[in-house]
Specification:
The protein has 160 residues and is an alpha+beta fold. The protein contains six helices and three strands, in the order αβββααααα. It has a three-stranded antiparallel beta sheet with strand order 1-2-3. Bound molecules: FE2/S2 (inorganic) cluster.
């Protein structure tokens, strides 16, 4: 991983944006990576601007690597004001925003965010609320059949 990307990701992790469940969300999407076992859930709230449906707010919860959390934090910021069609076209390297392009080994972390976004965009306007309230609840009720789950705290000590 390039030093610059690492520095920017560490900065984003120090104060991640839009973390947590959105109680008034219009849509929600959850995905898991079969490769690494990481999971990401994204909530979207829409509004209307100039006669168009646009994303008002986005939030996320993650049991994933630091890169996935950093990208999700960036993505939830840059989704504001985008139409669902515009949001759907965003690629992992665009969702990473100010972090810059993802190092090749981290592309799949950005893809996890991309897939969570698409899953949320595919959701219904009045979302079926997940049977469990949090990803932690999901892990307790639906143990993964394979792979290992890494639980990464949202705020990391930058000294390691
Ligand atoms: Fe699994 Fe990054 S290592 S999402």
């Amino acid at each position: 991983m390039s030093e610059d990307f690492e520095d920017r990701a560490r900065e984003a992790l120090a104060q991640p944006k839009n973390v947590g469940e959105m109680n008034d969300a219009d849509s929600v999407g959850t995905v898991g990576s079969p490769d690494c076992g990481d999971m990401l859930r994204m909530w979207l709230k829409f509004t209307e601007k100039d006669g168009k449906k646009v994303i008002d707010r986005a939030s996320f919860q993650a049991f994933g690597c630091q890169t996935a959390i950093a990208v999700a934090s960036m993505a939830t910021e840059l989704l504001k004001g985008k139409t669902p069609e515009e949001a759907r076209l965003l690629k992992p390297n665009e969702l990473s925003g100010d972090l810059g392009p993802l190092p090749p080994m981290k592309i799949h972390c950005g893809q996890l965010v991309e897939q969570a976004l698409k899953s949320a965009l595919d959701g219904k306007d009045a979302p079926a609320k997940p049977a469990v309230e949090t990803l932690a609840g999901n892990l307790h009720t639906e143990p993964p059949s394979s792979g290992k789950i890494k639980i990464v705290p949202f705020v990391e000590d930058a000294n390691d």
